[in-house]
Structures are given as C-alpha cells and as structure tokens.
Design brief:
mainly alpha
Length: 52
C-alpha cells in the first residue's frame, strides 16, 4: 500500500522534523519513526481487513 502526504501536510511534517532536530536530533529520528510506524500500521490493517 502506498500512502502520500497532502502537500500542506508534507510541509508541516518537514517543519516538525526540523523543529525536533533543532532541539534534540534523536527526537527528530523518533518522530520520523513514529510517523513511518503509522504508515506501516495502516498498511498492515488494510491488508488484514481485505483478507478477513
């Protein structure tokens, strides 16, 4: 499953990563991981619902 951000949401995401990175680089990485985790969760949920 492919997911894409709306252009305005993508800019907001980019700004959030920069904000976290300015404060603590590891927080930026955790934030990115959390957002990517949501995408993986949605992909998994979609596949399970389609099969079941």
């Amino acid at each position: 499953m492919k997911y894409e951000f709306h252009p305005e949401a993508l800019e907001e995401y980019r700004q959030a990563v920069l904000w976290y990175d300015e404060r603590e680089p590891t927080l930026a990485l955790q934030f990115i991981g959390a957002i990517n985790g949501v995408g993986l969760y949605m992909h998994f949920r979609c596949c399970v619902l389609q099969q079941g």
